[in-house]
Write a structure and sequence with these properties.
Chain lengths: 543, 264
């Protein structure tokens, strides 16, 4: 509970910071309110356990409403706050304060509840509906850029939406490929005391057998329980498979932190709006929607990436030890016949050479390809048009595959060593340069093209004499820049065994020879900066 | 084989019949030229005048085959240029010089290289690709540079030349095509009055010495009256005047530019 209050304080702090920045506070009331509605419907709030860990359900606030109707106070108070925010002035501030406090009280009350048994009620078709709406909406968006074909596009959107729904809802469609999505959203309904008693008795009956097993495993014996509130750990298997779950309000999910943080933010923003109601602006609602959007994406992302500063505290001793052993770097140890500096310099040279060869190969192939991928050069005939689309598709698809992954595959095919790295760089750079070159061609001045066309020159000669002289300096500039990027990516390629200094660093890190690894790190920093500097100097002289 | 491009038919250079041009724009169709009829004899120097948007540029581009008309015929040298194949159009274009307001030179190349571009239409595609111009091409290009007084600048990059010099390079490029017809779209609009006169004098000289027919779009009425043998006035896509400069009345000019008083 005190942990949750920390999040309230965090919200208040953000409100104060936003207030110091001198903006309208109403937008923060609106933003926090809208975000709270999202959290209410979509973020996991608590935890309900079954027999196995995969039976665990993380219910949202909305899912808990049938069990604990007081939680409805959260969205209701937010709605009141939003209506008052529309009103504006001190009323908006008051709404923020009331809404924030009500949300904190309602959510906090939930944490004081004892554990209880609930029954799951999956909401059929909800996820399918959301996917179908997403499909339909993304197609319907096209109609904005093509107002003439609005009606057919909208019809297409509806048809695609219905098809998506039908496919995802079918057991042989979404049921096979996305098995979690069917009935993913579950409401939690309360269970009558008689049923709870039955489950408890069933648990007690099965206990001797369970204890016999636990004894064999050397675990403590479990005591019979009087009610389910005393239950430790998992629910009996039978109850779990019947759709019962044990809700433990004390186990918090990130939705809980979000509720308290946002409620704190709303409260703080409301208080400051009370103080200076005239700072509100007409577009507060639009800004509020933006704030809510950012919050609804950012908060789950923090949870999904297991963000936890505590881990850094735990890992601190390792960092200290690392620093102790890495410094001073070991340049050479003739007694043990170790020459790290020598090795680093050789490997850096290999890395630069990998980037050189890779960039060169890419440039050679990208040059002709880029003309085929340029819209203005291929405008002539339908055949050229289709070549254009094919080239574009090829470059776009291949560009989506990172250098590292190409290297991983090539290492498996041609073995460890720089050759795999060179090829990976060449293939990926080909797509990057192809795009950059073709954009340069498309942006070339049309005047000379028109002039040469009007002298009766053939198409290839117009390209050769009107476009090529214009784009050649740009090509060279892009190639140098690409070399710079390729040097950096060839550093990483060593990590997957594709040769160069990265391989050296990986090896020294794994064997704990941090003082040798440090030589490599310092060399990389120096060479990266030299190449950056040289490349930008060269490019500035070109254009 | 040349399909009459170089076959001369009497004294008539250009014959325009019922020419209309309509563009499809975002706001719907836009009629730029309406029922234009015009005859231009060989060796004429015609100035096309009119306000911006009157259809002058569209008219000139149609003469060069850069635009295909919506309706009507354009016969140049006895050939209907509105129904040429791509290859035939290239053959036609090399006999027509075109001079642009923005010069449209290839900036990173030398003056001589740019003038040589006028010879590309006479080379086979692969010779052009490798830049293998013949001795004759070089002689013609140097000659034309000489005629615009830029022989000393032949190896200078054109972006190092002044605006007036650049336009003269562009004229030399057009003349290197050894054209029978020279089209110029506002060739002097980007230049100061002295350089404008210079460009006009150069065109006039080519017209008189080489017998090249010149059709020029021009804003500056004084230049048009001073250099042209004939004036054609466009207003809202229609020809409203066609005659000698002396015949152009003050009333018509006022009407053309839709103003009460002549300010020039």
């Amino acid at each position: 509970m005190s942990g949750l209050l920390f999040y309230v304080l965090l919200g208040l702090l953000l409100a104060v910071l936003a207030g110091v920045a001198k903006g309208s506070m109403r937008r923060w009331v609106v933003g926090a309110g809208l975000a709270l509605l999202v959290v209410f419907a979509a973020f996991p709030f608590s935890r309900a356990r079954g027999f196995l860990s995969r039976d665990t359900v993380d219910p949202t606030l909305l899912a808990l409403v049938p069990t604990f109707p007081l939680l409805l106070l959260v969205p209701l108070s937010v709605l009141v706050a939003l209506v008052l925010a529309r009103w504006g002035g001190r009323a908006a501030g008051l709404g923020g304060v009331l809404g924030g406090v009500a949300a904190i009280i309602a959510a906090g009350w939930w944490y004081a509840q004892p554990a209880q048994i609930v029954r799951l009620h999956p909401v059929e078709g909800l996820i399918e509906l959301l996917i179908a709406l997403g499909v339909a909406a993304s197609i319907a968006l096209l109609s904005f850029s093509r107002p003439k074909q609005r009606v057919p596009i909208l019809i297409g959107a509806v048809v695609a939406g219905v098809l998506a729904f039908v496919w995802f809802h079918a057991p042989q469609g979404g049921g096979v490929y996305l098995p979690k999505s069917l009935g993913y959203y579950k409401l939690l309904f309360p269970t009558p005391p008689a049923t709870q008693q039955e489950i408890a008795e069933a648990y007690n009956r099965a206990l001797p057998e369970l204890n016999a097993i636990r004894k064999e495993l050397g675990q403590d014996e479990l005591q019979p329980i009087r009610s389910l509130a005393d239950l430790q750990g998992a629910l009996p298997q039978q109850a779990s498979s019947q759709g019962y779950r044990l809700v433990q309000p004390a186990t918090t999910q990130y939705g809980a932190f979000a509720v308290f943080f946002l409620a704190g933010l709303m409260l703080g923003a409301g208080l400051m709006q009370l103080g200076s109601p005239r700072l509100q602006e007409p577009d507060d609602f639009r800004a509020g929607i933006l704030i809510a959007l950012v919050a609804s994406f950012l908060i789950p992302a923090f949870d999904a990436t297991e963000f936890d500063l505590n881990k850094l505290v735990v890992g601190w001793p390792f960092l200290q030890q690392f620093a102790d052993r890495a410094w001073p770097p070991l340049l050479a140890d003739p007694a043990a016949e170790r020459y790290p500096l020598q090795e680093v310099l050789s490997q850096i040279a290999v890395t630069v050479q990998m980037a050189l060869v890779g960039t060169f190969l890419a440039a050679i192939f990208a040059m002709p390809l880029s003309f085929l991928a340029a819209r203005n050069v291929t405008a002539g005939t339908p055949l050229m048009r289709s070549v254009f689309y094919a080239t574009r598709l090829f470059l776009n698809v291949l560009r989506g595959v990172p250098t590292l992954i190409i290297a991983l595959i090539l290492v498996a095919a041609v073995g460890l060593g720089p050759f795999a790295g060179v090829m990976a760089i060449a293939i990926h750079s080909l797509t990057e340069l192809g795009k950059l070159y073709s954009e340069a061609i498309e942006n070339a001045d049309k005047g000379p093209v028109e002039a040469l066309e009007s002298t009766g020159a053939a198409g290839v000669n117009v390209v050769r004499w009107a476009i090529l002289p214009q784009v050649l300096p740009l090509f060279i500039s892009y190639t140098i820049y690409n070399f710079e990027i390729n040097f950096r990516s060839s550093l990483v390629l060593g990590l997957v065994g594709a040769g160069g200094i990265g391989y050296f660093i990986n090896e020294k890190m794994a064997s704990g020879q941090y003082d040798q690894m440090m030589v490599g790190v310092i060399a990389i920093v120096v060479v990266v900066n030299i190449i950056d500097f040289a490349s930008s100097w060269l490019r500035s002289r070109l254009v | 084989m040349h399909k009459g491009v170089e076959k001369s038919v009497g004294v008539r250079m250009i014959e325009v019949r019922n020419l209309s041009q309509t563009f499809q724009t975002a706001k719907g169709p836009l009629q730029v030229l309406t029922d234009v009829n015009l005859d231009i004899p060989r060796g004429d120097f015609v100035a096309v005048i009119g306000r911006s948007g009157a259809g002058k540029s569209t008219f000139l581009r149609t003469l060069n085959g850069l635009l295909i008309p919506t309706a009507g015929r354009v016969v140049v040298n006895g050939t209907d240029i509105t129904r040429l194949s791509k290859r035939e159009l290239q053959k036609y274009r090399r006999t027509v010089g075109f001079i642009f307001q923005q010069f449209n030179l290839v900036n990173r190349l030398s003056a001589l290289d740019n003038v040589l571009h006028g010879r590309l239409g006479y080379l086979s595609a692969w010779r052009g690709l490798l830049g293998l111009y013949t001795e004759v091409d070089y002689r013609i290009a140097r000659e034309q540079l000489q005629r615009v007084d830029l022989a000393a600048k032949e190896s200078a990059r054109v972006d190092s030349l002044s605006g007036g010099q650049q336009q003269r390079v562009a004229i030399a490029r057009a003349m290197a095509q050894q054209p029978t017809l020279m089209l110029a779209d506002e060739p002097a609009a980007n230049l100061d009055p002295v350089l404008s006169e210079e460009v006009m004098r150069t065109l006039k000289r080519f017209n008189e010495q080489d017998g090249v027919t010149v059709v020029i779009n021009i804003h500056a009425l004084d230049l048009a009256l001073k250099y042209a043998k004939r004036i054609v006035a466009f207003k809202r896509g229609r020809v409203v005047f066609d005659g000698a400069p002396e015949q152009l009345s003050q009333d018509l000019v006022d009407d053309l530019y839709e103003r009460k008083e002549m300010l020039v």
